[in-house]
Automatic annotation (TrEMBL):
The chain crosses the membrane at residues 12-33, 45-66. InterPro entries: Band_7 (IPR001107), Band_7/SPFH_dom_sf (IPR036013). It is found in: Membrane. Residues 63-227 form the Band domain. It comes from the Bacteria. Gene3D superfamilies: Band 7 domain. Keywords: Membrane, Transmembrane, Transmembrane helix. It is a single-pass membrane protein. This is SPFH domain-containing protein. The lineage of its organism: Bacteria, Pseudomonadati, Pseudomonadota, Gammaproteobacteria, Lysobacterales.
Length: 294
């Protein structure tokens, strides 16, 4: 049900009218039941009846008054039929028989609880998110779903579970999206999926971000060791690549400048020694040969 905005009347003039009607009805009622030798009993009864009618009108007019705060809408219905939505701020007045439902259109946010799900590779993880949302269609929020706030919370957890199972925790291949390394892309995916789920509830998702991400406690230690092993392998790979380049450069410089001429066996020995020096974790202790080269 799409929102339809309708007008309303200023409430201050009606409030003044209600006060005037209340004063007049009180005067008529008091004068009607009091002693009045100059008037017949019929006139006194008419005053009492008129006072009751004016008091009833005053009460009904008072029911028609309601307050609309900034960033708030009031959904009006008449005996179950949607009439329209009022967004004008201040004290307003409409038909006293209209049922009124106030809906806040302020920006809201909440953090979901920590969910335990299996990521794409099947490893159990803990994940939570922060959702920023706002009601943009008050009539849809009231009539399309039951308790739209609860609906937003439940659908947010459902969308988070679905998103978490679509990506691995860590990046295993170049260019692969993962939960840990691509927070912006993952947040956009979560926002898009959540918006599709909440569109019929008149809710707009302004932002969605992962606020907590970790392996489940039962595998956290094993996964930490795997991450450390991957880091060591990556570091060693870079060190070896650099060492090979330095050895190649050293051999080229020696050959170009004619410093020394080495046969293949000595080249192999030199390469081995340089790789040990460059790739070793500890500093080497050189042995100086004071005699023959061979």
């Amino acid at each position: 049900m799409k929102e339809r905005e309708i007008g309303s009347l200023p409430g201050i003039p009606f409030l003044l009218c209600v006060l005037v009607l209340a004063i007049v009805s009180a005067w008529m009622f008091v004068t009607g039941i009091g002693p009045d030798p100059d008037n017949a009993g019929v006139n006194s009864l008419a005053k009492v009846f008129g006072g009751i009618v004016l008091a009833t009108l005053s009460f009904l007019s008072l029911i028609g008054l309601y307050k609309v705060e900034p960033n708030q809408s009031v959904v009006l219905s008449l005996f179950g039929k949607y009439v329209g939505t009022v967004k004008a701020n201040g004290l307003r007045w409409n038909n006293p028989f209209y049922a009124k439902r106030k809906v806040s259109q302020r920006v809201r946010n909440f953090e979901s609880g920590k969910l335990k799900v299996n990521e794409l590779d099947g490893s159990p993880i803990e994940i939570a998110s922060v959702i920023v949302w706002q009601v943009v269609d008050a009539s849809e929020a009231v009539y399309n779903v039951d308790e739209y706030e609860t609906f937003v919370h439940i659908q947010s957890e459902s969308a988070l579970r679905a998103m978490a199972t679509s990506y691995p925790y860590d990046q295993h291949e170049e260019g692969q999206l993962s939960l840990r390394s691509h927070a912006t892309e993952i947040g956009e995916h979560l926002k898009k999926e959540l918006q599709e789920r909440l569109a019929d509830a008149g809710v707009q998702v302004l932002d969605a971000r992962i606020s907590h991400l970790a392996y489940a406690p039962e595998i956290a230690q094993a996964m930490l060791q795997r991450q450390q092993a991957n880091a060591i392998i990556a570091a060693r790979t870079r060190i070896v690549a650099g060492a090979v380049g330095m050895v190649e450069m050293a051999l080229q410089e020696l050959q170009k400048n004619g410093v020394v001429t080495l046969d293949e066996e000595r080249k192999a020995q030199m390469v081995s020694n340089l790789l040990v020096v460059l790739c070793g974790e500890r500093s080497t202790q050189p042995i100086v040969n004071a005699g023959s080269l061979y």
